[in-house]
Write a structure and sequence with these properties.
The structure holds 3 protein chains of 3 kinds. By secondary structure, chain A is α+β, with helices and mostly antiparallel strands. In chain A, a hairpin with an 8-residue loop joins strand 6 and strand 7. Chain B is globular. The longest helix of chain B has 17 residues. The chains are: A alpha+beta, B alpha/beta, C alpha+beta. At the B-C interface, helix 11 of B face helix 16 and helix 17 of C.
């Protein structure tokens, strides 16, 4: 039971026209049970059995509507998908707006296992579906099927939709060789040299008037003894040399990108600085989440 | 009093209020900002308006824990060691550029903040009450710093960013209309502050409000894409700060607006994992928008 | 799949098993039910997937339906209803995700069931009944029940006389109290065959419509309505069921015999419910002439008895012989006792009549009948029940409660011109319990609360039998007749319409239940007010608090500022302050009404009211 014209667009509102409903196999079995009970009831002239049989029939009629109401009027929309890595399950956000209570709603992307059913209260919900993207770059997750069999599993009501928002997929992380370009200890072009040098404790730099918050160990005792007033010594640190990462020419580009992806991830985890040089673009050394994402995005979109 | 401090920090009433709420909620404050934005002034103004002792320490990479806590000094006269308290033993401590210190020193400070006492050579010395640490941290994209780990960030009740003053306020500043902190009268004493802190804890939190806070926490945990999940300690911090805020608003009970007022200051640094500026308050905004505020 | 699913399904299984317990294993349908239960349990044990568990739930429902056919009484029906409820809850648990606990599931199951009930009732009440396709050769019970037996020897009833076990209950739906105590003889078996020691019934143990016998005349269509007697008989193992001897059975599988027995074609091992209706010709069995068997007597066994009877035999008419016997019995010092001691093998009746003169109904009936036969009057022994206690349950129809202790035997004699007449020789004896009961009012009433409860329950049981089990094809026809008159052809349309209406009502009700927020009146009131504003296109933004929203509203409608502020202030106090009060809640409601009123009564600027709320208000 998977037919029906898939919906397109950023948002889709489920209504009569794009919702499909059919009895499940269990639904047919249920009807068979109803008939069986009817036969027993007639044969035995048993009111209880007859009533139960009619009860099952009316539950069948009732759940036809209840199942349909679970999805009727529900609006689906794309969220802003966060980037993910290829080759691993990636979460894709779906915004769901329910006019009423929706029970047993399952979202499933084509080719993926169905998730656990949700029970959604009226209002907005941000749900996620997971999918395994095929490779790096911008990808759409494909056909999304939203379905419910609640409350009794007699009917399956579904609709199909192609979510419009594309998701940025980074290359898969795979450990391997990466080309490290010579450390960028020299200041980058266009950057004032002094900005890369920070106050620190390595090299003596300067004297400055002593402030009360300065540590006594930094007091220039010699000057104080000479009666030239209180001065504090200033030191400065050499900034760390940050490696520039580049794809290893010895492996195919796609694999090299995967190695780079892994390396960037691990550098970020260790809090190290790094830069990235790819064909046609280079990213200056830096660190932080924004920097990492920028580098990974460059990998994802690298041609 | 807020207006008094506001005179000192022109155009920063909201931040002053948050800092004050932090003080009332017995929390500690982390300020991330560029130099020259008035961090010192804020700390000093807070300290002076309650008549609290104020010290300032510049953190450097060679700063040792003992430089903060103090150490046992041999007293030749008494032929014994006696404890010489360090700058930590002040009621308001401004820890400048905390990210410059070695992780060891940082953790000594944070432990003292959490425990309210300092152990030196096996003897524990209680810190003065009230005790407020205002730590400042510069941007992380500078070298030679040890960023505060996420677990330590959690110990700060709030993170603020003062930012540039509005044009009008800056004009007034340039005209010299602002007050110097020393001009603040000590209308309140440390005792008043302790009393206010105690009152703060008695502010009423209804079940509906706690539900709201719990919904916020749940929401942050169910949305992994939207920053780090909030810890139970974050929940406690949120309630404490909201209580202080409601007291400042002159109410006896806490309402969701109080929670929302402190939400960004309390939760943003817990959610963005210390990556300052990247989220720019968006995470807590998104969190707030995700939970029904009508209770 | 909720964690509650497996426990719920196992619990249902347990309920069904309990329901199976009382079932006689001899019925083929019972075997089917047993088999189904075992199958379902096995399936449940090995079920892992959703699909398998669903099938388990369906099997459980079918099992409950099968049980309903086998055990239609009130108690088992309640059990079956519970099992159905739980089976549905188990099915719901499969679909609703991990969230709800078993309590929520049961509530939901009840909601769904109640919602489905109207439609089911419409179909049940209005759809014409089908007749059974063929009469199933249902197996027969074994007569191992306590109660009367088809062979009556003088000692047999004494065993029953101490048993307080329930035998039957009879109600009189047409109203009126029970017949007077001396008229309460409920006949079951007629014993005509006498071998000098015991009396045997001529009724076949399990009657079948004899081939040679002309089929029973088609019963004249009974007037719709209820019978004059409604019987509820515990399993007996007998092929005959008690009745008063008057009336005509409504069920086709009960046939009155010429001897005055009411033969039951259904197995006696099952509880029976049947009704008797009034009939025009009173007592055809009473005028049925006696056969030679009614005079058969093994001569020479009881010489003194025969000598006594021979004297009466010389009297002119049967009536005179009967009277002579009666006066003889009354003149002798007979005493009623349940422990008369064993009778000798030689001339037992002589021993009883002329020496011990101690005995109970079996002795009296046997001796008297033998005397009558010896005197040439056709006579037979009838066994059944006598008396019974009239019970009036709280708010129900009264009924006569018959216990096994009420078992009795009496005689019937054929009087020329009068037909079969009941003679109860026990009544002539000294210490007859019925006579004592008559003088001391009703039979001893059980005073224990347990007895009282049991009587109430049986009262319910009677009502259940009357209204539920008694609803059959004829009742259904009568109902349709009453509803539609002669517009019978509209039945299909009416049923469809009624189903559609019930469906709509059920869906509406369920929807209302789903929308209903539990309990919190303050919150409901707020939502009411918010809906009023939403109709004017103002809805709170995501995460917006009430004061902020109120500010936005005031910006749009400055005139509303005051009532809004009052309302919001009050609401917030009630909601978040430490001292919410009932009066405060009322005040909030009042302010809410005032606010909505001022919103309605055109305090609004004449702007184009934008309908509907923009879908995504998030920034």
């Amino acid at each position: 039971m998977d037919f029906g014209r898939p919906q397109q667009g950023e948002r889709v509102r489920l209504r009569m026209r794009n919702l499909y409903i059919l009895p499940t196999r269990f639904g047919w079995l249920w009807l068979a049970g109803t008939v069986l009970l009817q036969v027993i009831g007639v044969q035995m002239q048993s009111n209880g059995t007859l009533l139960l049989s009619f009860l099952m029939l009316s539950l069948f009629l009732l759940t036809l509507h209840l199942t349909h109401f679970n999805l009727q009027g529900v609006e689906l929309g794309c969220g802003a998908p966060a980037p993910g890595f290829a080759g691993a399950p990636v979460a894709y956000p779906i915004q769901v707006r329910c006019p009423g209570r929706s029970e047993g709603v399952r979202l499933r992307l084509a080719g993926e296992a169905a998730g656990a059913p949700f029970s959604l209260s009226p209002g907005e919900h941000a749900l996620t579906v997971t999918w395994t993207p095929p490779g790096r770059g911008w990808h759409k997750p494909g056909l999304l099927r939203v379905q419910t069999t609640a409350p009794l599993g007699l009917f399956c009501c579904w609709s199909r939709w192609y979510p419009e928002a594309a998701q940025l997929i980074y290359p898969a992380r795979r450990a391997g060789p990466v080309r490290l370009l010579a450390g960028a200890s020299a200041p980058m072009a266009g950057e004032p040299a002094v900005a890369s040098r920070q106050d620190g404790s390595d090299d003596w730099r300067d004297l400055a008037p002593h402030r009360p918050q300065d540590s006594p160990s930094r007091l220039a005792w010699k000057l104080l003894a000479q009666g030239r007033g209180e001065y504090a010594k200033r030191f400065l640190d050499q900034p760390d040399t940050a490696p520039l990462l580049a794809p290893d020419p010895g492996v195919p580009l796609e694999v090299a990108l995967e190695h780079l992806s892994e390396r960037i991830w691990s550098y970020h985890g260790q809090g190290l600085s790094y830069g990235l040089v790819l064909s046609g673009q280079s990213i200056e050394p830096g660190r932080g989440m924004v920097h990492r994402d920028q580098c990974l995005a460059a990998l994802a979109c690298c041609r | 009093m807020i207006s008094a401090i506001g005179e000192v920090l022109l155009g920063k009433e909201h931040q002053v209020r948050l800092a004050l709420a932090c003080l009332l909620a017995r929390g500690h404050l982390l300020i991330e900002d560029l130099p020259g934005m008035g961090k010192t002034t804020l700390a000093e103004a807070l300290a002076r308006s309650f008549g609290l002792g104020f010290k300032r320490v510049s953190f450097t990479s060679d700063l040792l824990p003992a430089d903060l806590t103090g150490l046992n000094v041999f007293d030749p006269g008494a032929a014994s060691f006696h404890f010489q308290p360090g700058p930590l033993f002040s009621q308001v401590l401004l820890a400048d550029e905390i990210n410059r210190a070695s992780p060891r020193t940082q953790s000594a400070l944070l432990e003292a903040m959490a425990a309210g006492r300092v152990s030196v050579d096996g003897v524990s010395h209680p810190l003065p009450q009230p005790f407020l640490v205002i730590a400042t941290q510069n941007g992380l994209d500078q070298g030679g710093t040890s960023a505060l780990p996420e677990s330590q960030l959690d110990r700060f009740l709030m993170r603020l960013s003062l930012g540039y003053p509005p044009r009008q306020a800056e004009r007034a500043l340039l005209q010299g209309e602002g007050l110097r902190p020393d001009g603040l009268s000590g209308a309140f004493g440390p005792q008043d502050l302790l009393e206010l802190q105690a009152r703060c804890e008695r502010q009423h939190c209804s079940a509906a409000l706690l539900d709201y806070v719990l919904d916020l926490l749940d929401r942050s945990r169910s949305q992994p894409a939207q920053g780090h999940p909030l810890s139970p300690r974050a929940g406690l911090a949120l309630v404490a700060a909201a209580r202080a805020w409601s007291l400042l608003e002159g109410r006896e009970h806490v309402i969701p607006d109080d929670v929302q007022a402190v939400l960004a200051a309390v939760c943003e640094h817990r959610m963005d994992g210390g990556q300052r500026g990247e989220s720019d308050g968006k995470l807590s905004q998104r969190l707030q928008a995700g939970v029904d505020g009508l209770r | 799949m909720s964690r509650a699913a497996a426990p719920l399904q196992w619990l249902t299984m347990g309920l069904l098993t309990v329901g199976l317990l009382g079932l006689s294993p001899a019925l083929s349908l019972s075997l089917l039910a047993f088999g189904l239960a075992v199958l379902t349990a096995l399936k449940l044990r090995e079920a892992r997937s959703l699909e398998e568990r669903r099938v388990v739930a369906l099997l459980q429902l079918v099992g409950a339906g099968l049980l309903a056919a086998l055990r239609p009484e009130l108690g088992p029906s309640l059990l079956q209803g519970l099992a159905i409820l739980m089976a549905l809850a188990g099915l719901l648990a499969l679909e609703l995700g991990a969230g709800p606990d078993w309590k929520a599931l049961m509530r939901r199951s009840l909601q769904v069931l109640v919602a489905a009930l109207p439609i089911a009732l419409v179909l049940f009440l209005l759809l014409p009944r089908l007749m059974p396709f063929s009469s199933l050769g249902s197996g027969h019970g074994m007569g191992a029940m306590t109660g009367l037996s088809d062979s009556m020897d003088p000692g047999s009833i004494a065993r029953l006389a101490v048993s307080r076990e329930a035998a039957a209950r009879v109600a009189f739906p047409l109203g009126g109290g029970p017949p007077p105590l001396e008229q309460r003889y409920w006949r079951v078996l007629v014993h005509e065959r006498f071998d000098g020691r015991s009396w045997r019934s001529t009724a076949p143990p399990f009657p079948r419509p004899a081939a040679g016998q002309p089929p029973a005349p088609a019963p004249t269509p009974a007037a719709p309505g209820e019978g004059i007697q409604l019987w509820l008989v515990e399993p007996s193992g007998l092929s005959a069921v008690p009745w008063s001897g008057a009336g005509r059975p409504l069920s086709p599988d009960l046939t009155p015999q010429r001897s005055g027995e009411l033969l039951n074609r259904a197995p006696g091992s099952q509880r029976r419910v049947y009704a008797l209706t009034r009939t025009a010709d009173p007592g055809d069995w009473r005028t049925e002439p006696p056969g030679p068997i009614d005079l058969v007597l093994p001569r020479g066994e009881n010489p003194r008895l025969e000598a006594l009877a021979a004297g009466w035999g010389r009297l002119g008419s049967d009536r005179e012989r009967l009277n002579a016997a009666g006066s003889w019995f009354r003149s002798q010092p007979f005493r009623y006792t349940l422990e008369p001691g064993a009778l000798p093998r030689q001339a037992p009746l002589d021993h009883f009549l002329f020496e011990t003169r101690l005995g109970f109904c079996g002795h009296y009936a046997s001796a008297f009948t033998t005397l009558m036969r010896a005197a040439g009057v056709p006579a037979r022994v009838v066994s059944g029940y006598r008396g019974g206690q009239w019970v009036q349950p709280v708010g129900g129809t009264g009924y006569v409660d018959l216990r096994q202790a009420d078992a009795h035997a009496w005689s019937e004699v054929w009087l020329q011109g009068e037909g079969w007449q009941r003679v109860d020789p026990t009544a002539w004896a000294d210490g007859d319990p019925l006579a004592t009961a008559e003088t001391s009012g009703e039979t001893a009433t059980g005073t224990a609360p347990w007895d009282w409860l049991q009587r109430q329950w049986w009262g319910l049981d009677i009502a259940w039998a009357r209204w539920w089990l008694g609803y059959d094809s004829e009742q259904q026809q009568a109902l349709v007749q009453r509803l539609l008159g002669d517009q019978r052809h509209l039945l299909g349309l009416v049923v469809l319409l009624a189903v559609a209406i019930s469906l709509a009502a059920s869906l509406g009700g369920l929807g209302w239940l789903g929308r209903r927020r539990s309990g919190d009146t303050l919150r409901l009131e707020l939502e009411h007010t918010l809906r009023a504003f939403a109709r004017h296109g103002m809805a709170p933004d995501a995460g917006e608090t009430l004061p902020v929203f109120a500010q936005r509203l005031t910006q749009r409608w400055p005139a509303l500022g005051d009532p809004l502020n009052a309302y919001v202030g009050n609401y917030q106090r009630q909601r978040f302050a430490s001292t919410p009060s009932r009066a405060g809640r009322r005040e909030t409601r009042r302010l809410g009404r005032a606010l909505r009123r001022s919103l309605r009564t055109g305090n609004l600027p004449k702007e184009a009211v934008q309908r509907g709320v923009p879908l995504n208000r998030r920034p």
